[in-house]
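Usage

Read records sequentially. Each one opens with the input sequence:
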Amino acid sequence: MSDLDEALLEGWLRDEVPGFPKLVGLEKFSGGQSNPTYRVETEGQNYVLRRKPFGPLLPSAHAVEREFRLLSALRPTGFPVPAPLALCEDASIIGSPFYLMELVEGRTFWDASLPQLPLAERRPCHEAMIDTLAALHRLDHETLGLTDFGRPGNFFARQVDRWTRQYRAAQTDDIAEIERLIEWLPRTVPEQTRASIIHGDYRIDNLIYEAEEPRVRAVLDWELATIGDPLADFTYLAMNWVIPFDGQSGLGGLDLAATGLPSLEDITARYCEATGRGGLPDLNWYFAYNLFRLASIVQGIKKRLADGNASSAKAAASAERVRPLAKSAWAEARKAGAVGS
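and closes with the structure output:
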């Protein structure tokens, strides 16, 4: 039994999607904390539906309309995204805006160390992940009609301000490290040299791979996408090489060579070659920023949990990560030159 009105939904889909088959059922995917996502089963084929959460939302969060617009722009380029099929901005249908897209079949990896794969197949999967990110960053957002999708300049300064405001809007506790970061990050923003489409949450479990080869078939979860500094994406992904191994995205502490995985230096060199860069600046500031941003996102989950609007059974566990993320972010800030205990 789903939490949506299936009869109203089916009627809308039949009107908006030519040839839409009879709806058989809806199954909510268990992963993810932000926009609830469902497998839509029909008598013909299956689809995916993403909606905004029910209830009060933070400003600018959960913008499924933006996701749909971006998928519609990316799909004709050949970049691997699901085909967007229909957008509903009328909250009276299921209780919130939503969109329908193609269901892409393939492999999803939840553990970035790829223990289920033979050693020889692990590095190519990571290389495909880097190559796909580089391909995104090479796209011309202006040619794709996305000039107004985000403000390209001064990206990190604006993002620090945004995530500070998001954190304040969802704040439930006083955390010393967060307060230090809010003071230090805006004063030390590095220079921006490029602008591109950025995904905003690029990691291995947001990718679907081909069943039999290390090729990315689809990049998912574009809720945080915008136009900005591509280093925001790359350093968010690269941060997983310093986050302690956790059976999820973190790879820190693993013997990478022995486990068939590329090093941080390997992925950096591959990304630079694919995007025409001579190298990258020191990454510690970027790691501090990304961990602060992640702490702000998780704080939003914590607030939604308190308000009864969290979309995943894992929300409570995620909410407990705010303080550890804040401490890790401040540790990276100190490596980048921040002063304080």
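Summary fields computed downstream for this record:
- The chain is about 40% helix and 10% strand.
- The mean pLDDT is 92.
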